[in-house]
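thought: fold this chain, then report.
action: predict
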Amino acid sequence: MRRRLCTRIWKTRNWVKLLALAAPLAMAFPAFGVSCMTQSQMTSAQRTILAQSAQMIGGNVEAGNAAAVRTQTIASVAANFDGIANSIQAVNTSILHATLTVDAVYLLDASDLKAPQETQFFCGVAGSALTVEVTIPGLPPGKYALAILHATGVRQPQQISLILQNDPADSADWKLAGFFAKPMMMGGHDGLWFWRQAREYAAKKQVWDAYFYYQTAQYLLQPVDFVSSPNFQKLQREAESSRPDNLPGADPLHLRAGAQTFDITNLHTGELSEQLDLVITYNATPNQDLVAARAQVTAVMRALLQQHPELQSAFHGLWVYAATPGNQNPFALELPMEQIQTSASPSGQRS
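observation:
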């Protein structure tokens, strides 16, 4: 079984990049005169134009051709393109030679807006399980589209969401206004699998396992944070019903490890070498040498498993990031579950 020792920051979810569309967020109020059409409500010509535009941009993303994508991007976003270019480079390694399909398109008409504002679109038949809500902050007046693409047939399939904006002078000219990419699987499983497993953990009252599996299901199934649906809302309600009381949020989780107490500031799932870990960030003692830093991190690992032993069966291992003021001498360590309890225990830190 592998052991991984790092002294760098490991960032999860770093493939997700959000670009503001063009203008700062104005005071949020309900938008009138906006509409959404699903692909079944569009004409054949509308569907074809949007699908072709999305496929063309997606093909350049798959090829890693950020320069070509930039030429297909609206001017206000192309002027600050580094974030999208970095995302293209990051996702390209996973989707090279993938099969790229347009999974869904939505036509968003905000032409009647008087000023940029948070705008909510309701797509589909009201009350239907297939209804989709799209809420975009700071949206300027105009015609937009949301296209969701799937890159499959590769080891790490990805979903790519594109916000497209129409050129008012040319109804067939759609350019990129926002780019988002995220995986379709983690630890070898898709979002529906994690949803089913979360329900099983919840039925067994293993709320920590249930909650983090629900969170992983939501991350994989929701293409972008500003899209919702009755199914997503159901998933969110189930997740909240299993939420442990003492998770870190505005205040850290205080984890006792022997005579010490550590402040856990973040917990989420992550994937390393295609295996699912629980990722932990805590406020570490600054200016430690590597031996002391490793001892403290393993103490945090053991203390968490002693308090929540059910985690051992739900995750491959724990990844702990030791945060220090100003991120001076950052330290991170990942260990599989079977190595955590057998790792050397520093004096005075065993619970």
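thought: worth noting. The first strand starts at residue 4 and ends at 6.
final: tokens above.
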